[in-house]
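Moderator note: this is an archived Q&A kept for reference. The question asked for a predicted structure of one protein chain; the sequence and the answer are reproduced below.
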Amino acid sequence: MKLKRILFLTLLVSSLFTSISCSSQNKQKNDNTINKNKTTMGTIALTKDEFLKKVANYEKNPDEWKYLGDKPAIIDFYATWCGPCKSIAPSLEELAEEFKDQIYIYKIDTDKEQELAAAFGIRSIPTLLFIPMDGAPQMAQGAIPKKDLKKAIETVLLNKAEATK
């Protein structure tokens, strides 16, 4: 009986972790679900060339992080076939609208921009890169709930002492 319980709990925990993020090695493509190279409501799709101009030119400055933007940003590394990526996309769109004058929310399709994804060591998606105006960027993996994303925007990117609930 204990063995069955342990096996059940192990399967439950492992299924929770696999539902939170997708491995970049486990692809089932479905290109019709996330807009390609388009700005939707508020998020902005980036190519490698646009990244080098708007975010950071890591080719020119390989040893130093130098953010080029004029306001903080989040970069969503995603793939069109990734379930967790699809689940956080609406939250990112809503937050891009809510904070449109304060931050940028960029999206990078890891299938199309493999070199860029490799440069940042993206192995699991979704991966979010939080870029404050000052200081080093911070990464988070998985489908983060909207309230937690909002709190991270307010505390990490906008330096508000106490984030709203």
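Archived answer notes: The domain at 22-157 is CATH 3.40.30.10 (Glutaredoxin).
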